């Protein structure tokens, strides 16, 4: 658990986060537990989030909630190359490459560590889309890639850039959901 927090929280130190005076970051409780299709991962969300699953290889589990926040768990059987899988998962966007502006603005990139004894890489960046998605063109995407013990997983979070910048509650919520991912 300490390893997971180290990988997830270390990059938070890289961002200058200015909270609005008097703002209280009220993060909803993670009361709902969900499993991926193969029952190898579980995670929690606040009540009211919608979760869908697409079985296969890769297997995709997606959760959507307030402020247009999205969390995707992309799982593959077997231990793939960490760097290659991380780069592949960074291309899992909300729209195709022809609908995305060229160039990426990285907050941090390929920060290494461990999550529950598995190898991990973490990156965060802003993607600009040609057309608005849920009313927004600029989205912050974070990819946490974890490989070990017979499987490879990408935890990908998406949030409109404007929401990410102004809401410490949104930042804390997405971090809490990523931290809630567990292997049985």
In words, what does this structure look like?
The chain has helices at residues 2-9, 82-90, 161-166, 168-180, and strands spanning 32-35, 42-45, 50-54, 59-65, 69-77, 105-115, 118-133, 136-148, 151-160. The chain is an alpha+beta fold and 184 residues long. The chain has one domain: Protein Transport Mog1p, Chain A. It has a 7-stranded antiparallel β-sheet. The protein has a two-stranded antiparallel ribbon with strand order 1-2. The longest helix has 13 residues, at 168-180. Mean pLDDT is 89; it is low at 9-21.
Features:
Protein Transport Mog1p, Chain A; two-stranded antiparallel sheet; alpha+beta; 7-stranded antiparallel beta sheet; 184 residues; 4 helices; 9 strands
């Amino acid at each position: 658990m300490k390893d997971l927090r180290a990988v997830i929280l270390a990059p938070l130190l890289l961002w200058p986060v200015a909270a609005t005076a008097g703002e209280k970051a009220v993060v909803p409780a993670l009361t709902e537990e969900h499993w991926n299709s193969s029952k190898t991962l579980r995670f929690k969300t606040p009540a009211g989030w919608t979760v869908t699953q697409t079985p296969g290889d890769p297997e995709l589990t997606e959760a959507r909630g307030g402020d247009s926040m999205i969390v995707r768990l992309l799982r593959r059987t077997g231990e793939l190359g960490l760097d290659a899988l991380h780069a592949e998962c960074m291309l899992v966007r909300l729209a195709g490459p022809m609908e995305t502006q060229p160039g990426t603005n990285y907050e941090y990139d390929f920060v290494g560590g461990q999550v529950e004894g598995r190898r991990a890489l973490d990156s965060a960046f802003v993607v600009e889309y040609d057309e608005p998605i849920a009313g927004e063109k600029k989205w912050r995407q974070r990819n946490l890639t974890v490989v070990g013990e017979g499987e490879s997983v990408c935890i990908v979070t998406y949030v409109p850039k404007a929401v990410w910048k102004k809401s410490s509650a949104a930042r804390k919520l997405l971090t809490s959901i990523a931290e809630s991912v567990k292997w049985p």
